[in-house]
């Protein structure tokens, strides 16, 4: 028993030393060999004790002790030895288990740490390689993003500082403004010196000046379709695209959908029914005068 105890203790101690000292490949191999050897010696030893104890108990129960079987004293000694091997705290099995249990736990923790470090190192290298691979493309993306930001800034209405929704270009200066902003500006702008000198009161007959350069306009603003296309193309994702012509006039007249400058650059057209009504009124007045 002392020999077996010594062998198992050496195996467990070698395992602990191999794990605690370092975690290289040769030490893992030494650890595995020591554990297997310890379990093998312990298993063979216990099997031998069980077989001998079983034979001794059988001979004692039958009261037969041939020369080929152990005598009673020898059988009783092996029975006691088996009990000690299984239940005594100083038995080889208990010694091996007491030393090997924390050793196995330390081995698991060491292997887990080693595996984590290797995985982390591999992942870090892969991330660095991926960043180096996409670095040229990232430069292109950053440059295009900067250009797109500048383009969005240029495609903003000078009056409201918001991206164009329905851009309109004035002539002859060529400045572009949003439709609603330009309508509001022209309706609320004070009369010019030309309007005062010529007693021009109604808005369609008054002079219209560009909000930026104050140059008189020569005609109605024209829709800037190219600017509208650029705005819609450079718009951020999930942005609602506003059509160039949207909605009716407040009084229900569909003419606003076709010409948004009625009442600003031109008078609102008179309906045919109104003309007939006025003509009938004058006709009746002439008949009564006769």
TrEMBL record:
Keyword hit for Transcription regulation: no
Q: Which GO terms describe its molecular function?
A: zinc ion binding
Specify the domain of life of the species encoding this protein.
Answer: Eukaryota
Q: Which UniProt keywords apply?
A: Membrane, Metal-binding, Transmembrane, Transmembrane helix, Zinc, Zinc-finger
Segments traversing the membrane = 6-21, 33-56, 93-111
Q: Which SUPFAM superfamilies match?
A: RING/U-box (SSF57850)
Q: Which InterPro entries match?
A: Znf-RING_euk (IPR027370), Znf_RING (IPR001841), Znf_RING/FYVE/PHD (IPR013083)
Has keyword Repressor? Answer: no
- Every copy of the RING-type domain together lies at 157-214
Listed name of the protein: RING-type domain-containing protein
